[in-house]
Every structure is written in structure tokens, then in C-alpha cells.
Amino acid sequence: MTTSAVVVTFNRLLMLKEVIAALQNSTTKVDHIIVIDNNSRDDTVAYLTSLGSQIEYVRLGENLGGAGGFNRGVRYFMEKTNDEFVWLMDDDTVPLADTLTNLLKFADEKDQFGFLASDVRWVDGHRAKMNNPSPVNRARKIPEDSTTPEKLKNATFVSLLMPREIIAQMGLPITEFFIWGDDIEYTERAGRLASGYFVPQARVIHKMKSNVGSDVLTDSLDRLPRYFYSYRNKIYYGAKRSLMGHIRSNLRITLEFLRVLFKPGVDHRKERLQVVWSGIVAGHKFKPEIEFAEPKD
What we know:
The chain is built from nine helices and ten strands.
């Protein structure tokens, strides 16, 4: 069973070094380490270039966001390698020595799957709130001490294993998403072909600055523009769900808008409303095409 790891990076050299070292120290060999550089500063370029043949280095001419980076990374995996699986992660995702071993063990036990997601922890050992597993039964919360794999509705690109044959059928991540929701859309697309699973034995550490979720009500002003992509992308992938799923998605978005509109004490309310509304409007016009990799010669 052969695996390519794809790491998307942008100006986080110290963490990137830790991620690459962890991949190189994996108990189960990573056959190709593919680093997609979203046009980082020169120090990142110098370091990655110095690694030579230890990695596959792909530098982009501009920052295409996480979505564009994963699009290029999955394309490289499909067109430049013969590996069976691709293992996707951000540049602040640190796998343990046995993470890949446990993902592949589960993969070997399953006849078919769309994706496998790791148990993502923050530096204090608790679940990373940005990466809580989303079981098919949304009324259920997977306990932190769970040892039982479970079917998932979707997952994030913070340690995600996918088989080549599924990607060949479903295509690549959508570059135009730029940031936020590209992984939700991609794993839900995969899940329509074969079930995705949470593998609790396959842990990684997500080294975010703080263990908090995203919230347009409280986030800082400098981060507000990214919520445009969040709401635009939610409108797009919500429309791809079943009728009831689509209705529930639109209801959640409506409730979030009303919270921004009416909740007392919200600072810069006008700016927050504007970014949410502009994302919603753009989402109804957002119709990106799904790209497919060229078959490898």
C-alpha cells in the first residue's frame, strides 16, 4: 500500500519543518512527500529547495488559498505518482509516528471507502474544535475517548486519506473555493460514492494558535473578509445535498445571519452583516466546474 502525503503551505516555515520531519519519521513509509507552496517568502523557498529529492516541491506563482493548493496537490498525486492513496494535510498538522500505519490498517480492512479522517487534537490533547468529527447521525457527538470507527458525513483536510480510484471518479478539489469549505464539499462529494470514516486510532496534532472555532460574530476585523468565502461556499455545497439537507443548510445560514443582525453587543455589526450577505448572494451565482486529473502515462 503506497501513499503520497500532500502538504499545502504558506509562510509558516517553522511549523512546516516540523510537519515534514514527522512525515519522514513515520513508522510506515510515506512514498512521496509533495509540498505545495502557495507563493511563500524566500525563506520557505530556500528551505524546501535545500531538501532536494527528499520531497516533491511544487511552488505556485500566486497564492491560490488552501483550496487551490489542494487542487494542485491532488492533481500532482494523480498525474505524477502511481501511489494508491493520498494523505492531505495543512502545514500545521503534525502526524504521530503511527498515524499513517493506523489509517492504512483500517483501509486494508475495508473493501471500499471514500475517505478516512484522523482524530485531530490540539496541543493540550483535547479535540481541535475546528476539526470535530461530523458523524452521519448529526444528533450524536463522538466522545473524545472513543475507540470505535464511525461513518462520517464530511471531514477536513487536516489529515485525510483518500484512494486514487475515488478521486479518478469524482475529480479534484475546487480551486475557486479559495478557503473554507473546500474540504467539506470534497469529502461530501466523495461520500456520495463511498462512505467516509473517522479512525480514532489515527491521531494528529493541529497546532493552531488557540483551540477555538470560527465565528463571524466575534472574529477580528482583519479576518472578516474570509467569511465571504465561508458563506458563498456554504450556499454552493448545501445545494448539492439532499432536499432535507439543503433545507437544513439554508436554515442554519439564515439563523446565523439573524444572529448577526439582532444579537446585542455585536461590534462592527454593519461590516459583519455586509460580508455575510455578500457571501450569500455570491453563493447563488457560484457555479465552478469540477476539474479532473489527466490519466498518468
